[in-house]
Specification:
The protein is mostly helical. It is built from 13 helices and three strands; from the N terminus they run αααααααβββαααααα.
Length: 303
């Protein structure tokens, strides 16, 4: 049984029988393709009907270790479950190894954010003597310098980079476009990567416009960004749970702490609701307390 043949069949099922939107279909296929990437990473030669509860337990552990949030983990589990329901319905497998897999407990706990020293430590740990090092530094500078989602990062195109005016055109959730300012350090590192590394490597047809490429010349995958960050965290010894989203959260937190307008941050992050943006403003208690004492009329001391 070939994974891609049945992923293609699953796609047709989602399109024709469930009439899902293109974005929903893409999310389901991404979840199943994560299993394929896991098998490749572990060098396991297993087909869907050969996968057992033990392999999927290992898969979920791997997803969690990459730093993906509980919400993302739950979505991945849901997507793979839907894939096996399809395989069962089509009599392509005889049992569902996902039936006993439990999802993570979901809560409102925010991920750790990085202070400036943490970010510098991660950036300084990158080995710039390798071509991948220049690329990785450009990616992390961009994640933090523009507050991008990991999917937006790997989808960045040269044609959407306006370095002369310091802006990116980003394609976010629901294929909605937004214009995002990007810092000078990130722009300089992108320029270094493109001129010293990218232009000298292979580029597979169809990938010419993507900024960040793997060593084979293809668009970098989301999972590879997680792995790169995981390796850097291990190298630096930081004890925080850090993922690509941590850089986005840090971007928003540092802007708010620096006095940025919440509506402006909402626009930069691409949030439809400002309530969502408020979740990212993980301001420390001392900062909040000092603001309340300084500005609230009922907080001023009586002389």
């Amino acid at each position: 049984m070939n994974w891609q043949i049945h992923i293609k069949g699953f796609k047709s099922f989602l399109q024709l029988e469930r009439s899902l939107s293109p974005n929903s279909i893409e999310a389901y296929l991404h979840d199943v393709n994560m299993v394929v990437q896991f098998l490749q990473y572990k060098d396991y030669d297993l087909m869907p009907e050969q996968m057992k509860f033990g392999q999927y337990t290992e898969f979920i552990t791997w997803v969690a270790e990459l730093g993906m949030s509980p919400g993302t983990q739950a979505r991945v589990i849901s997507g793979v479950r839907a894939f096996y329901k399809y395989l069962l319905m089509e009599n392509l497998v005889t049992e569902d190894p996902m039936s006993l897999i439990e999802g993570p407990k979901l809560g409102r706990k925010l991920p750790d954010f990085l202070n400036i020293e943490d970010i510098e430590k991660l950036l300084n740990a990158i080995d710039l003597s390798s071509p991948e090092g220049e690329r990785n530094k450009a990616m992390l500078e961009t994640l933090y310098g523009a507050g991008l989602r990991v999917s937006e990062l790997v989808g960045l195109k040269i044609s959407n980079l306006f370095a002369d005016i310091g802006f990116l055109k980003v394609v976010g959730k629901g294929n909605k476009e937004r214009i995002v300012p990007i810092g000078g350090m990130a722009l300089r590192q992108i320029k270094t990567y493109m001129e010293q590394v990218r232009m000298h490597g292979p580029i597979i047809s169809g990938n010419e416009d993507y900024i960040f490429l793997n060593r084979r010349g293809r668009k970098l995958s989301r999972v590879m960004v997680f792995i790169i960050i995981k390796d850097l965290v291990r190298k630096t010894g930081l004890k925080k749970k850090i993922s690509p989203h941590t850089f986005r959260h840090s971007f928003a937190t540092h802007l708010i702490e620096g006095g940025a307008d919440l509506r402006a941050v909402q626009e930069m992050l691409g949030h439809e609701s400002i309530t969502t943006t408020e979740i990212y403003t993980h301001l420390d208690r001392d900062y909040l307390r000092s603001n309340i004492l300084s500005y609230h009329p009922r907080s001023k001391q009586v002389k």
